[in-house]
Design brief:
It is built from two helices and 17 strands. It has about 350 residues and is mainly β. The chain has one domain: Porin (Beta Barrel). Strands 1-2-3-4-5-6-7-8-9-10-11-12-14-15-16-17 form a 16-stranded antiparallel β-barrel. The chain is globular.
Length: about 350
């Protein structure tokens, strides 16, 4: 009886050890290809704009949890990469959800929901952007608060498939620098977490060229598509965009500029007319090391938008200056002051923003 009990104990012990070992192995395997991270933007806005009557003052004074992201990404093997990013600030929503199939340096596939390959600034993370807000022309012609008025374009993202890669390269300090990079995608054209609203698909693509100088990039990108214009009962209203730009980054200095032009079908008394818009921005900053793992840079941006080329009174110009400070590698404080020369006002508007970002 004792021998049977001892034998049963030994079997149970080995079974327990095997289970623990299997769990540790599984954990190790997941840790090999999965990383979990996140970040959060806590923002303060104060804005004031005096109406043309000289008496009425429009003011905003508010705190806001702008973003709260959870990010899961990894490489299952050398050819398969994935990312799932969710935002839980406000109503939880999927931000990114895609798979990359890496085949060759000159041809790869990305499928799912992600930022469209249009402009330099649209794909840029808010954690690296010089301003709290994206430039006006990015907001209005690159899918954030789109000129078409369709709110589902928010975030500069869409659902679709994209092909990308690079050709040619040169070596700099032992590192290979691509000379030509391309991206070409087919999308629903109806924004994040939405099915297509019509039977047509939108096209977005970009070409970036590095002319032999590390950090220097010239680019052109195009977006052509259709959207549902409910006010005119039209399912296939046109929405076309074209941009040219350049940027230079060397680890300390960042200078970037883009010009964007767009044509958007709009409703007018039940009919349709084409709204011609354009704009450009110039942004820059320079990093200074002030202590170990602590950096600060002054930033500035000139930002011009013509909502309607034929209506000059709708032109708006923003002048932004600020400081971008990382007191720790996972903590950022970005402070911006923007003077707004807005259409419809004889007086300048003033916006002060402070944004605290935490990465974990």
């Amino acid at each position: 009886m004792k021998r049977k009990s001892l034998l049963l104990f030994v079997v149970m012990l080995f079974a327990s050890l095997s289970t623990i070992n299997a769990q540790e192995t599984k954990k190790s395997l997941i840790g090999d290809y999965l990383s979990i991270s996140g970040w959060m933007n806590i923002q303060y806005d104060y804005e004031r704009q005096l109406q043309n009557d000289g008496l009425t003052l429009d003011e905003i004074n508010t705190f806001n949890v702008r973003r709260a992201r959870l990010d899961f990404k990894g490489n299952i093997n050398k050819n398969l990469e994935f990312r799932v990013q969710a935002d839980v600030a406000g109503t939880p929503k999927l931000v990114d959800g895609f798979v990359k199939i890496k085949l060759q340096k000159y041809f790869n596939i990305q499928v799912g929901q992600f930022k469209i390959p249009f402009t330099f600034e649209n794909p840029q993370s808010p954690l690296t952007l010089e301003g709290v807000e994206y430039a006006q022309v990015i907001n209005k012609l690159s899918g954030y608060s789109d000129m078409s008025g369709v709110k589902t374009y928010s975030g500069g993202r869409d659902v679709g498939i994209m092909f990308y890669g690079n050709f040619f390269s040169f070596e700099h300090n032992g590192k290979e620098i691509p000379i030509l990079t391309y991206k070409l995608g087919v999308f629903n054209g109806n924004g994040m977490n939405n099915k297509d609203a019509n039977l047509l698909k939108d096209i977005a693509g970009s070409i970036e060229v590095c002319p032999g100088v590390k950090g220097l990039m010239l680019a052109a990108s195009y977006y052509g598509g259709n959207y549902k214009l409910e006010a005119a009962n039209e399912n296939n209203a046109n929405r076309d965009r074209l941009t040219f730009g350049g940027k230079y980054e060397n680890g300390r200095l960042t200078v970037r500029s883009e010009y964007i032009t767009g044509k958007t079908d709009m409703a007018d008394n039940g009919g349709i007319y084409t709204l011609n818009s354009d704009g450009f921005y110039v942004a820059g900053g320079y990093w200074f090391d002030i202590a170990k793992d602590q950096r600060i840079r002054p930033v500035a941006r000139y930002d011009f938008l013509r909502q309607d080329i034929e209506t000059p009174e709708l032109n708006s110009t923003y002048y932004m200056v600020g400081l971008d400070w990382w007191p720790y590698k996972n903590l950022r404080l970005l402070v911006n002051y923007t003077m707004k020369d807005k259409p419809g006002y004889d007086n300048l508007g003033h916006l002060f923003q402070a944004q605290l970002s935490v990465k974990f």
